[in-house]
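To assess whether the prediction recovers the assembly geometry, we first specified each molecular entity separately, as shown.
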Amino acid sequence: METFHHALKFKYDLCIGCSHCTSVCPTGAIHVEDGHPILDNNRCIDCGHCYHTCPVNAIYIEQDDFQTIYHYKCPVILIPTLFSAQFPEKISQRAILSAIYHLGFQYVYEVEKSVDVIKAMINERVKDDQAEKPMISTFCPAIVRLIQVKYPSLVSNLLLIKPPLDLTALYIKKVLVEKGVPAEDIGIFYVSPCAAKIAAIKSPVGEDKSPVDGVINMNYLYNKVFRIIKQGLYQLREDEFDFHPLSKNSILWSLTGGEIKDMPAGRNLAIDEVHNVSDFLDKLENEDINNIDFLELRACDESCAGGILCAGNRFLIAERQRKRANQRPKVVSPDENNLLKYKEYLEQSSKLGEVMPRSMDKLDDNISIAMRKMKKVFEINDELPQVDCRICGYQTCKALSEAVVNNQADIKQCIFVQRILEQTDKLTTMEALKITKKVWGEAKLDKYSIKNLDLE
Amino acid sequence: MNFEYQVEGGDFTNAGTTSSIVKKMMKQLGVQPDIIKRTVVALYEAEVNIVAHAYRGTITVDLDEKKIYVKLSDEGPGIPDIDQAMQKGYSTASPKVREMGFGAGMGLPNMKLNSDQLNVTSVVGKGTTVEIINFF
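The predicted structure of the complete assembly is given in tokenized form:
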């Protein structure tokens, strides 16, 4: 099986082995060995909860070298509308835009330029009574991956329409080529507010290749642009548009409720934050919940405003975004948003390929072996304390049981099991120490490491 | 592998607990998603029937490499005419209950649709036993 590409990476030299990342992972993708987190590539959905929680910034987001923009004669930057909402209000949209041009981009576009086209398509599809309901949005790539690994039976509910990023990129290529720019000179760079979108571009789900040529970390760009503005290095541009020609709903799209806003018919729900989404999908799989037509699901609290690469407070970003949206009309004309003139072309290219289930829960490919393993997991788990203390290096007692059954861990990694065995002389303190050191590394258990504590 | 769960009549809050547990196990065994879906739909429907109509019930689950067998036995009013109950749209619900959107008479037919073998036996005044078998 081909493994997922992940944008989240660990810096072991900074990692202090606290295992907080292990505890917050919604898919149990991280365990600790030798004092460091180990990522299970098949489970990780790039939601970024670990990145948020790491106290020493030992998790970083992979990105393309910024210099690659200069490899193209016509570098184009594609920024989410959220980008400008991160700056203090006194900094104008025009200043932000001018500073981005100063970096060397030929064209600046906002990702949500194609939202009006996509919204119309979704609304049309949701009306279809014959289709499998609820339809689940594919906008948030972390959610698509969550469904693939954890809710394989819901894969067929995914609404296979490409996200705004893809359609806007297609539009840009088309329009620039029409203007006479050679296709090979165009380099489209997407500014991502999260790890999941980076991962989705590097290994797309339901597409052979992303239409984007490179990815820029939004936090990186924010700092670069802010510095240019602070130092007054840019020329204020008068000729270009100043972010404005988008409709109200396009600007609201990436916030919670943005996709279901003004949906004409049916029951629609917007749920944000990955644990909330998981709870809901658990119920949905049981058919507890009926008659829902469309689900907007987002992995981050406050949706993209809570993306891990956003600078600043998610609620303030969302508030600024709403403020901007409220100044815009609901409908814009094709003269204001030129992309609308390409509606038919974009609609033809809007279909996302099939998304395959890839269950991570499976204990073995062979059902007889899986059955035997499951029995074992139950047996082992019954004996464990259910404290989920993570001293064994795993997120839960159940996770340790599964690792033991798969020969990836030793049951004696459990500190309670160690204490019990020590009482009956089945394990010496030195042996127990050796096992724990294998999980947490030498340094944390070095006998001289707490010399300054008064323990008398 | 055998498991047993208890269901309390009238406890709608926890209806679906057994379906959830069974679903998790089937996922771990790597059963095909569509078979999991069918089983969970049938089982959930049966579980809710106990909660809605019976005093209490016991669910036993028997999982092996080839199939899942679930038996739901309840202590309750029983079903007087099972053949009738199996028909689409047949319901004993009062017009008042139907007005609220319940009692559409799809419970048993829906269970049948989602199981490879469905067996319902009942003694009026004593209780009902539902057996569901789905093959992998």
